[in-house]
Every structure is written in C-alpha cells, then in structure tokens.
Amino acid sequence: MERYTEPMDFKGFFKKKGSVIWKVIIVIAILLIGLDSIYTVEETESAVITTFGKAELMSEKGLHFKIPFIQKVVKVDTTVKGLMIGYSEDSSGNAYSVEHESIMITSDYNFIDCDFYISYQVTDPIKYLYRSSEPDFIVKNIALSAIRSTVSAYTVDTAITTGKAEIQSNVKSMIIAELEQEDIGITLVDASIQDVEPPTDEVIEAFTAVETAKQGKESAINEANTYRNEQIPAAEAEADRIIQEAEAEKEARINEANGQVARFTEEYDEYINYPLITKQRLFFEAMEEVLPTLKIVIDSNGDGISKYYSVTGDYEDGTAALIENSTADSSAGENN
User: Fold this and answer.
1) Which residues on neighbouring strands pair with residue 104, listed in sequence order?
2) Quick check: helix, strand or coil at residue 103?
3) Is a pLDDT exceeding 80 seen at residue 12?
4) Taking the complete model, does pTM exceed 0.70, yes or no?
5) How far from 133 is each of 76, 128, 139, 182, 336, CA to CA, in Å?
6) Rounded Cα gap, residues 149 and 102, in angstroms
7) Pairing state of beta strands 38-41 and 62-65?
8) Is the dihedral of CA 149, 139, 84, 96 positive or negative?
9) Cβ–Cβ contacts within 10 Å for residue 309, how many?
10) 3-state secondary structure of 64
11) What SS3 class is residue 102?
C-alpha cells in the first residue's frame, strides 16, 4: 500500500515567514528611533546638538528629546581637567620625568628641570568642538611655550630659589592671554609650579645648599628685624625716662637756686639794717653747720667781746681763742 505525501506550500510558508520578519524589522526600527530620540546630560557635562550643521548648546541637566537621525548630540566634559608638564604618572601613580618637556634653559645659559601642573576647564563646548580639532593639544603647547619663555628670562639661581612664585604668576598670565586670543572655549583654572631643580644629582645638592643658605639668611634678617623692633621702643622709653628725670632735676636745682638767691637777698637786706647782729647770727649758724656736735657757752661781759668756751673740753684753748679773736675783730670793725 503506497503512502501519499501532500506537497508543501512554499508560497504560503514564505508569505507567513515574511510577515514575521517585517514585524521584527518594524519593532527594531521603532526601538532604534526611540533610543535615538532621547539623551541624558549628566551634571559633569554639557551637550551640543547639531541640526543640519547648525550647533546649539544644551546645558540643562537631565533627560532630553531630539529628532532622530536628523539631530546629532555630542557630549562635552565640563569638569576641571589636569595637564602635567615635564612629568607624568604610571598606572601605579608613581611620577616620572619627561625630559623633553621639563629641561629648560635660563637667561644665564644654565639648564634646569621645571615641572608644572595646568588646570583648565571647557567653558564654551561649541567652540571647544569646532574651533580646533585638538584643543587639549593646543592647551599643552600654549603652556609649554609660556613656561619656556618665562623661565628663559630668569637666572638659574633665581629660578631655583626666590623666583618660583613670580615665575608661576607670569606663566599663568601668559597662558590666560594666549587662550583668550585662540578662543577655543577653554579657560585656565590654575597653573602651579611643582618643582624646579638642576638636572643632575650633584648640582641638585649644591643648589639645595644654596637655597638653604638663602633661607637661613632671610631667617636671620627677620630675627634681627624682630629684635630691633623690640629694642627700639624700649630704648625710646628709657630715653624718655632719662629726659624726664633730667627735666625734674633741672627744675629742682633751679628752684633751689632761686630759693638761695631769695634767702641771700633777705639776709643782705638784714645785714644792711643790722650789720653786727646779722654778722653774729651768720657766724653762729656757720659754726653750728661746721661743728654740729660742739657744745659752747657764750660769755659776754659787757665790753663788746663775746667769749666762747667748750663745755666738753673736746677742743683745745686755741679754738676758743680763735673764736674769741674772730668775734672781737668783727665787733671792732662794726664799731669803727
């Protein structure tokens, strides 16, 4: 008995399969259109949308829509970027020198090894994308040119010791001016000098010693200025004190002299009026001042002669006689 097999309907089969494939293609196309219609702008980036060659900036963060297959979106990182000049780092973070960038010549024709770290940021994404094909490379060339130009204006001693801050400031100013002139949508954030040293170990040690000596000199000068600032006010105060004491002594002596003049004038007036009495009083006062411990007895017998005798006997008779004769002579002169 023969078995009958119905022939396959290839036309219907392909028709059925074709409809499934078309459905899959349509679904894929819808998915592609949907995916190409949305984009996200992160916090650290900005987006540039081009429509038939015309660029527009989208700086708002979050989810956005665009016309699929017509509008193109390019995202630009707007965070601060770093650029190492004169050195680099390996995968482990260890720094190594890049001599073709770091070796520079000074104004006195010496070589130094100078390293810089440049920080910059994209502030205009449209200019960053379309003003130059390699804007980051331009930044590096500008920085290298500014560093070499600035270092070449300083001597090796100045560049390695006291001129670092000035070099850094000048390099920063030159890079800012060059970036403004190039107008590639990049702004300098900072340019900091990392290290400046001679290219050999022996020279490094020598210049390190020189820098240490200069720092010691500056430290000594600062200490001397501090000591001077402390001592000058103290010396001025001492001088004021001495002057004030001298002025006080001057006033005291002037007052004393005026008092002596007044007392002498008063005694002179008394002497004019009563010469004998005044002369005797002055004599007695003088003897009390010269011989303060002398005890005497005054004996006047009415003949105009006063006699003085020592009670304690501390003085010889010659003293009494001398006093007696002196008084007698004074009385005789008064009577005449």
Assistant:
1) 112
2) strand
3) no
4) no
5) 14, 9, 12, 13, 135
6) 13
7) antiparallel
8) negative
9) 16
10) strand
11) helix
Query: Any idea how long the chain is?
Result: 336
215 contacts 163 by C-beta, under 8 angstroms = no
Indicate the DSSP class of residue 89. Answer: E
Q: What is the DSSP letter of 3?
A: P
pLDDT in tens, 24-71: 677 676 666 666 677 788 888 888 888 888 888 887 887 877 777 788
Sequence-ordered alpha helix ranges (H) in 66-132: 99-102, 125-130
Helix/strand number for the chain, H first, E second: 9, 13
User: 185 is written with which tokens?
Assistant: 């949508």
State the alpha helices, DSSP H only, in 152-200. 156-160, 164-182
Is the pLDDT at 222 greater than 70, yes or no?
yes
pLDDT over threshold 80, residue 220: yes
Q: Which residues contact 305 (CB under 8 A, 6 or more apart)?
A: 324, 327, 328, 331
Q: How far is CA 241 from its chain centroid? A: 36
Spatial distance between the Cα atoms of 146 and 126, rounded to a whole number of angstroms: 26
Nearest CA to 72 out of 121, 24, 39, 113 is that of 39
What are the C-alpha distances in Å from 21 to residues 4, 29, 30, 68, 235? 33, 12, 14, 23, 106
Type of residue at 128: Y
Q: Measured on CA atoms in the order 192, 195, 198, 203, is the torsion positive or negative?
A: positive
The number of angstroms, rounded, from the C-alpha of 209 to the middle of its chain's C-alpha atoms is 24
Half-sphere exposure of 174 (CA within 13 A, CB side): 19
List CB contacts of 133: < 8 A, sequence separation 6 or more.
none
Question: Does residue 191 surpass a pLDDT of 60?
Answer: yes
Q: How far apart are CA 198 and CA 195, in angstroms?
A: 10
Distance CA 232, CA 226 (A): 10
